[in-house]
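TICKET: design request
STATUS: open
ATTACHED STRUCTURE:
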């Protein structure tokens, strides 16, 4: 069940996917986007113009700081692009499993004219407490439920790909003037580009974890709605279709024109005596 994916780290997430019985072996993936450079390519960048004009050269006190900053930035952008690329490969290898876990299609509600209604996203907080600023009054609840985003009309179901798949920017090299010129600068460059590289990898994993947590939160929120609907704890959405016949004029005409509108959005039902167990 998707609840196991709450607040997952990237490593845990991929381990769970890898242990699923859906896969007999990993799938060969060939992404259409060009593969980003590896760390060694960034570290061994060459200076194209070895004859530096004294008028265009940076003062020594400024140059060292500028080279350090360029190396860090180049490494960070490279690490971010490379880890994003790796994550895309890992996701593609587990795509069928993810399709089964995060199947938003099964949560949609049929609407007139072949349209669909996406259910609300409901959040749940446990053991909530609110203390007034005066300190004289407080409210405590075992659960607090909120409709974070209500039902809406859609044409197709969302997918996990819209949450987890990210593109990576081209890792453009720094200007020639900021590339290492001598042995000392090359040593600094290798050290700081590597440091930036791992910062970029960390950033890519943070981005993925944030995206994954949002995916899980939204999916769980819709599942929570379906459970609460079965229990009578929330009302269903209602949609109506109005046949407008032939509309338009001038340069545009619509035949068989219809409008579909949600007239009643889901609302919590606080009459707890009418609630029912979800399995009834």
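STATUS: resolved
RESOLUTION: sequence designed for all positions
ATTACHED SEQUENCE:
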């Amino acid at each position: 069940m998707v609840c196991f994916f709450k607040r997952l780290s990237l490593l845990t997430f991929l381990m769970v996917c890898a242990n699923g019985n859906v896969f007999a072996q990993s799938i060969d993936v060939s992404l259409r986007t060009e593969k980003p450079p590896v760390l060694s390519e960034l570290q061994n960048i060459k200076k194209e113009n070895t004859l530096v004009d004294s008028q265009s050269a940076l003062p020594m006190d400024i140059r060292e700081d500028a080279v350090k900053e360029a190396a860090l930035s180049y490494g960070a952008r490279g690490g971010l692009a490379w880890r994003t690329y790796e994550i895309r490969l890992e996701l593609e290898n587990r795509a069928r499993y993810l399709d089964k876990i995060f199947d938003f299609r099964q949560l949609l509600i049929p609407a007139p004219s072949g349209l669909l209604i996406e259910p609300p996203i409901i959040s749940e907080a446990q053991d909530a407490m609110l203390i007034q600023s005066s300190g004289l009054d407080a409210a405590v609840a075992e659960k607090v439920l909120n409709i974070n985003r209500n039902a809406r009309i859609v044409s197709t179901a969302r997918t996990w790909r819209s949450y987890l798949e990210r593109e990576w920017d081209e890792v453009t090299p720094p200007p020639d003037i900021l590339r290492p010129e001598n042995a000392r600068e090359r040593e600094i460059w290798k050290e700081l580009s590597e440091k930036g590289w791992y910062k970029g990898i960390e950033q890519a994993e943070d981005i993925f974890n944030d995206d994954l947590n949002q995916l899980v939160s939204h999916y769980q929120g819709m599942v929570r709605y379906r459970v609460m609907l079965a229990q009578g704890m929330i009302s269903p959405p209602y949609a109506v279709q109005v046949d407008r016949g032939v509309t338009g004029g001038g340069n545009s005409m619509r035949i068989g024109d219809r409008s579909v509108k949600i007239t009643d959005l889901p609302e919590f039902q606080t009459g707890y005596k009418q609630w029912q167990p979800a399995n009834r």
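CLOSING REMARK: The two ends are 20 Å apart (CA to CA). The first strand starts at residue 109 and ends at 110.
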